[in-house]
Amino acid sequence: MFDAILIEKPDGTQTVAQASLSEDQLPEGDVLVEVAYSTLNYKDALAITGRAPVVRSFPMVPGIDFSGIVAESAHPGWKPGDRVVLNGWGVGETHWGGLAGKARVKGDWLVPLPAGISLRQAMAIGTAGYTAMLCVMALERHGVAPGSGEVAVTGAAGGVGSVATALLAGRGYQVAAVTGREAEAEFLKGLGASSIVAREELSGKPRALARERWAGAVDVAGSTVLANLLSMIRYGGTVAACGLAAGMDLPATVAPFILRGVTLAGVDSVMCPIETRRKAWDLLAAELDLEKLEALSVDLPFAEVIATAPKFLDGQIRGRVVVPVAPDLG
């Protein structure tokens, strides 16, 4: 038996509680993993609170990522004792996720734990950090280089934003950290931000074209924030968009695209090809400053996950939230 967060909807009303489960209750898969660490992400908080229809089938164990050790494997690529990481693939939405002592998944979904980082550090990075690296890779792929000019990062004090800020600064970019929390200014400067931008500057009614300001951007917000960002990107710049914290709509015009050659690059972390995932994780292990990673991550006891989820959605959480499930695994 092992502990898990279990979301159920027996009579049309969602319930969530900490439960004790057995291996025979786990879904199908060819690899059984003993989970060492998981995390609390924005999507997990939506699933646990029921504020958005993230969960597609019930009952469901949330947790869109985890790190752990292979216990059993019928997959040719994995053997017992292998240390692995998983992000996305619908885990925590359509397939039971990482907020449990054990997970049974498809071996094709797993990535080997990169050399040089621990199981805990892998989840301090987690889906948010992995997504941040995909965004940095997208900017680089579209020609936004450290010498191109300042790069804006929205939601900079959150999970994706804080890691993106640290990664970009580590590569030599000037980073404009966009946040609605003035109190986080010193934290963001500690991650390498060269300037702090009040979220209100991107909250007004978007103009078709505003003053050219940034060479590129990483956006986790969508909606009006993204529309304003697009109107302020310099000629030939790129915005890597990976989130919808402010909404799914996009009240923009085509002006930035056809008059300034701006690129809107969508970044998907859920179904990203395995080769790209491995590259992103290898780059994270090589580039991310582990001292900064420690500064932007906190541990949350398993028993406090459910109570903390609403605070996450209300913008009261900074950086990365790591959930130790079985930290003794290493």
Quick overview:
With 330 residues, this protein is of the alpha/beta class.
Task: Supply the key terms.
six-stranded parallel beta sheet, seven-stranded mixed beta sheet, 2 domains, alpha/beta, Rossmann fold
Sheet having the most strands: 7 strands, mixed
Helix content: 25-40%
Question: What is the count of β-strands?
Answer: 15
Query: Strand-residue fraction?
Result: 15-25%
Number of helices: 9
The global form is globular
> How are helices and strands ordered from N to C?
EEEHEEEEHEHEHEEHEHEHHEHE
CATH C-level label of the largest domain:
Alpha Beta
Tell me the structural class. Answer: alpha/beta
The CATH architecture of the largest domain is Alpha-Beta Complex
Number of domains: 2
